[in-house]
Specification:
Blueprint lengths: L1 E2 L3 H11 L8 E6 L2 E7 L19 H8 L3 E5 L1 H4 L3 E9 L5 E10 L3 H14 L7 E5 L4 E6 L19 H8 L3 E7 L4 E11 L7 E10 L1 H83 L4 H79 L1
Parallel strand pairs: 1-5
Antiparallel strand pairs: 2-3, 2-6, 4-5, 5-6, 7-8, 7-11, 9-10, 10-11
Helix pairs in contact: 6-7
Length: about 375
């Protein structure tokens, strides 16, 4: 109880406390059954009573005066728009008779609000990109805690909630909410999560919300990297597919070339056969020319002309026979070159086949990497 003589001291003390109590406070004085004085913090604009109000008997102030005891009530937001804690202290005169009451009303804070200054700085440091943690009542931001590397200057203390704010949605729906917003200040996506805090007395009544804002810079970078990787892999995959088609064409051409070389080698063998046939004809022609010369000698003067012809035939036969070794040398060289070309063609054919196989493996690997980049993009979008 308060002695009547000490009321002025309480009023003076109330002036000091009005703007010193976090969340605000309202004081008022009742004499008899009438409100005669009141003062409130600037941040606590709730109009509970006003000077001149006459109180009915069921009011807490009248009960405290009658019973001469301190009365504390937890009042829900249904009465004044937000939950409050009201305390009424009876005032007695020198005879101990109750003559009035000294009242104070405080916004009733959720336990999370009470502990905010203790846990919020710790939680803010747990996010490697920084975090902004805030607490609202039903109308405005009442606590805020930025991290050292991230702050939301758009939401100062006492920021009035608008209908578009996620906190208002949470208050209306009584359900947690998540959203992504674009910050003009940071020019990047931000993730916002907000949870409703319910009244301790009425478990169905939202009295506050707790929100956390985190930048999504890393997630955005991952999305960009994944998208660029996907685009790059698509280009590489297209190029490799074209390369694979070219390798297949080269392989086909190598097969045709190898077949042609084999045919040329076969023709060189045929040339050798023809050369052998020519050699045989030349030898037989030489023998015929020799026989003709012998017969011409036997015929004497009558066979002289025929002998000249026989001699020319033998000369042509010798010339034809002498070209056979040269022709064989040429065909042998052709044959050697064909063998060399055939070996090279065989190796090229094998290399082309290996290249085509390797290209298929690379294409398969790139398709797998492309699939992984798509998965990376999906994961980044969830961060």
């Amino acid at each position: 109880m308060i002695q009547l003589s000490a009321v002025d001291s309480y009023k003076a003390f109330a002036h000091i406390l009005a703007d010193a109590i976090p969340g605000g406070v309202r004081f008022w004085l009742v004499e008899g059954n009438t409100v005669v004085w009141t003062i409130a913090s600037k941040s606590f604009d709730m109009q509970i009573v006003k000077v001149g109000d006459v109180l009915e008997e069921h009011y807490a102030s009248m009960q405290a005066i009658r019973e001469k005891k301190v009365i504390t009530h937890k009042i829900s937001s249904a009465a004044y728009g937000k939950p409050i804690l009201m305390t009424t202290i009876p005032i007695v005169n020198d005879e101990g008779i109750g003559v009035g009451a000294f009242n104070l009303a405080l916004p009733r804070l959720h336990p999370v609000a009470t502990a905010f200054d203790d846990f919020a700085p710790i939680v803010a440091k747990m996010f490697h990109e920084g975090a902004f943690i805030y607490l609202t009542d039903l109308d405005q931001i009442v606590h805020r805690q930025p991290s050292e590397i991230f702050d939301m200057m758009e939401f100062p203390l006492n920021y009035k909630l608008s209908d578009d704010d996620i906190a208002k949605k949470v208050i209306r729906t009584k359900q947690p909410a998540f959203a992504e917003i674009n910050s003009v200040r940071y020019n990047e996506s931000l993730a916002v999560v907000n949870y409703p805090l319910f009244d301790e007395v009425n478990a169905d009544e939202v009295v506050a919300t707790l929100g956390i804002v985190t930048p999504k810079k890393t997630a955005a970078q991952l999305q960009g990297i994944a998208k660029n990787l996907e685009n790059g892999l698509s280009g590489i995959s297209a190029a490799i597919q074209q390369l694979a088609a070219s390798a297949a064409q080269i392989y086909s051409n190598e097969q045709i070339q190898h077949s042609n070389i084999q045919e040329i080698a076969s023709l060189s063998e045929e040339i050798n056969v023809v050369s052998g046939f020519i050699k045989k004809i030349a030898e037989e022609t030489n023998m015929l020319g020799l026989n003709a010369a012998i017969e011409a000698a036997r015929a004497g003067n009558e066979g002289r002309g025929f002998g000249v012809v026989a001699e020319e035939i033998r000369k042509l036969s010798d010339q034809s026979k002498s070209t056979i070794p040269e022709l064989k040398k040429i065909t042998d060289k052709i044959h050697d070159k064909m063998n060399l070309a055939s070996d090279n063609s065989e190796r090229s054919l094998q290399s082309s086949e290996e290249q085509a196989s390797a290209t298929e493996e690379i294409t398969a690997s790139i398709e797998e990497i492309a699939s992984m980049s798509e998965e990376l993009y999906r994961i980044a979008k969830k961060l």
